[in-house]
C-alpha cells in the first residue's frame, strides 16, 4: 500500500495552491509548488493562470499538459529536476516567457517541440542534464537569448545558429562528448566579450586613485608580457549543475 501511495503522489488542492503563491523579488506573483511530491500536473492550478511565475521544480512530473498555454502572463517557468520525457507543443504559446529552466529531466532531442523557437522573448534557457544528442538549429530564432545551458548531455556539436545568437553572453556546454576538448572550449569561447571596460576618464580621478590604477595596469601588462595567459574555460554561475539534491535556495536559479 505504501508503494502505491508513493507512486500516486501528493494531491494538490486549489486551497494548497492559493497558499503557495509568493511575491517574487520584482513584485510578481509566483506559484511555488516545488518539492511537493507531485507526480501529475495539478489541474486545479489552471484557475490561477494569471500568475507571473510558476515553479514546479523538484517533483516527479513526467508530462506537462497542453493546458499550460492558459498561463498567458507567465514570464518565468521552472520545471527542473523532474522526470519529463517530453514537452507540449503548446509551450510555444507562452509569448511572455523570458526564463525557462527544464534541466535535470529525461528530455531527448526528438521530444523537444519545434515550437520552442516561438518564445521570442526568452532570455534564459536551461537544457542541461538531459538526454540531448543534438540541438535544433531552429533555436537560432531566439534572438533575445542571453544565456543557455547545455551541460551534461550527449552533444557532439552545437549549431552555428545557436552559438552566434546576437545577444548570447553565456553558454555552458561542459561535459558533453565533443570530438576533442578544443572543440568544447571553442564552443564557449566563440562568444565575444568585452575584456576592458572604462567607467571614468583619467581627468576625473584624483592623483592617488590615478596612480593606483596605473600601477595595477602596469602590473597586468608586465604579467602578460612575461607569462602567456593560459586559455581559461568559462564559468557560468547562473546556469548551475544540480547534484542529486538540487539547490534549496530558489534565488540561486533565478536571473539576478
TrEMBL record:
It holds the Pfam family LRR_14. Residues 227-242 have a biased composition (Low complexity). Residues 224-256 are annotated as: Disordered. Residues 68-206 form the Disease resistance R13L4/SHOC-2-like LRR domain. Keywords: Leucine-rich repeat, Repeat. It comes from the Eukaryota. InterPro entries: Leu-rich_rpt, Leu-rich_rpt_typical-subtyp, LRR_dom_sf, LRR_domain-containing, LRR_R13L4/SHOC2-like. One of its GO terms (cellular component) is cytoplasm. This is Leucine-rich repeat-containing protein 18. It comes from Eudyptes sclateri.
Amino acid at each position: 500500500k505504501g508503494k502505491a501511495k508513493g507512486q500516486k503522489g501528493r494531491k494538490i488542492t486549489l486551497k494548497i495552491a492559493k497558499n503557495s503563491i509568493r511575491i517574487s523579488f520584482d513584485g510578481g506573483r509566483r506559484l511555488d509548488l516545488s518539492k511537493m511530491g507531485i507526480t501529475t500536473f495539478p489541474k486545479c492550478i489552471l484557475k490561477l493562470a494569471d500568475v507571473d511565475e510558476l515553479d514546479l521544480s523538484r517533483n516527479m512530473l513526467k508530462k506537462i499538459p497542453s493546458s499550460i498555454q492558459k498561463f498567458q502572463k507567465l514570464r518565468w517557468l521552472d520545471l527542473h529536476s523532474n522526470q519529463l520525457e517530453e514537452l507540449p507543443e503548446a509551450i510555444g504559446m507562452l509569448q511572455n516567457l523570458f526564463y525557462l529552466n527544464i534541466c535535470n529531466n529525461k528530455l531527448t532531442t526528438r521530444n523537444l517541440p519545434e515550437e520552442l523557437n516561438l518564445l521570442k522573448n526568452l532570455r534564459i534557457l536551461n537544457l542541461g542534464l538531459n538526454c540531448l544528442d543534438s540541438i535544433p538549429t531552429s533555436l537560432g530564432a531566439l534572438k533575445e537569448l542571453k544565456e543557455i545551458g547545455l551541460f551534461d548531455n550527449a552533444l557532439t556539436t552545437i549549431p552555428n545558429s545557436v552559438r552566434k545568437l546576437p545577444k548570447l553572453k553565456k553558454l555552458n556546454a561542459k561535459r558533453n562528448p565533443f570530438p576533442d576538448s578544443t572543440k568544447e572550449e571553442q564552443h564557449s569561447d566563440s562568444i565575444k566579450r568585452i575584456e576592458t571596460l572604462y567607467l571614468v576618464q583619467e581627468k576625473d580621478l584624483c592623483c592617488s586613485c590615478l596612480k593606483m590604477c596605473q600601477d595595477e595596469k602596469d602590473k597586468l601588462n608586465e604579467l602578460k608580457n612575461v607569462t602567456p595567459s593560459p586559455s581559461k574555460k568559462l564559468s557560468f554561475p547562473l546556469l548551475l549543475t544540480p547534484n542529486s539534491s538540487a539547490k534549496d535556495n530558489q534565488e540561486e536559479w533565478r536571473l539576478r
